[in-house]
Amino acid sequence: xxxxxxxxxxxxxxxxxxxxxxxxxxxxxxxxxxxxxxxxxxxxxxxxxxxxxxxxxxxxxxxxxxxxxxxxxxxxxxxxxxxxxxxxxxxxxxxxxxxxxxxxxxxxxxxxxxxxxxxxxxxxxxxxxxxxxxxxxxxxxxxxxxxxxxxxxxxxxxxxxxxxxxxxxxxxxxxxxxxxxxxxxxxxxxxxxxxxxxxxxxxxxxxxxxxxxxxxxxxxxxxxxxxxxxxxxxxxxxxxxxxxxxxxxxxxxxxxxxxxxxxxxxxxxxxxxxxxxxxxxxxxxxxxxxxxxxxxxxxxxx
Length: 302
What we know:
Elements: E1 2-6, H1 11-22, E2 26-30, E3 53-56, H2 66-69, H3 71-92, E4 97-101, H4 128-148, E5 151-157, E6 159-161, H5 172-186, E7 191-193, E8 199-204, H6 205-214, E9 221-225, E10 230-232, H7 233-244, E11 252-254, H8 269-274, H9 283-298
Parallel strand pairs: 1-2, 1-3, 3-4, 4-5, 5-9, 6-8, 7-11
Antiparallel strand pairs: 8-10
Helix pairs in contact: 3-4, 5-7, 5-9, 7-9
C-alpha cells in the first residue's frame, strides 16, 4: 500500500514509519523540510501517487507552558496545517482514508473521557486553544465525510512514551528522565513542577501504533488509546530513579510552577472491544527502555 505520513520525523511519526515499512508498505513523508504543510501546494509533489492511507500526525505545539504563552501561534499554525491537509485530501486524494490524531486535553475536565464527550463542554483553560484546534480537526473530518463521502479515523492517545525521542523533547516523561540523569551524573538540582501528585496516563508508543494499525478497517470513528491506568508523577519519577539508582528524596517538587490538570485518564472500553490486549508493554519495562535509550544516545551530550 502507498501511505503518506505527515509529521513523519516526529516521535510518533518515526515509530509509525518504521512499522509501516516493516509491513512492506511504501511510505511517503511530510515534515517541516519535506512537503511542509504551511502551503497546500507543497503536497502537490505527491499527486502522481494514489494513497491508500494518510496518517496526519503533524501538529504545532510544545510541552510545558508553551500553550499558555503562544495561544495565537497555536491557533494560526495548527489551523493552517490542518486545513491544508484536509483540502489536499479532498481535492487530490479522496480515495484515501485519513487517520488523524486528537488530544486528551480536548476533553472537558468535568466529564468522563469517553469518545462521545470529546466535543462536549469546555476544555481546560491552560490548553484551551490547542485543544480547540484539535476539536476543529475532528469537525473538519466529519464535515468532509458528510458532504464528500470521505473516510477517516481519529485516535486520541494518552501520553506517548518509549525510546526514539529527541534529546530536548520536554514532554513530561522525557523531561523527568533527563533531569534525573543529570542529577545522578552531574549533581544538578532536580526540580519538578507541581506537588507530584497530579496523575497522568502513559501508553507505550509501539502499543499505540499496533492498535492504530489493527483498527484501520474501521470507518468514521473516534478511538481513545490509553493504558486505562493513571498514576502520580511521583510514581513515574520513582521508577526512573530506580532505573538510574538515584535517591528519589533528592527531588524538589515546586508547587509555584505550572502544574496543568490534576488528573487525566482516558476511558478505553471502545478500543479494548476491538483490539484486545493492545497494551502489551509493562510500565516498568517501557520506562527502562526509555531510560536506556536516553543513557545510550544523550547521556554524555549536554
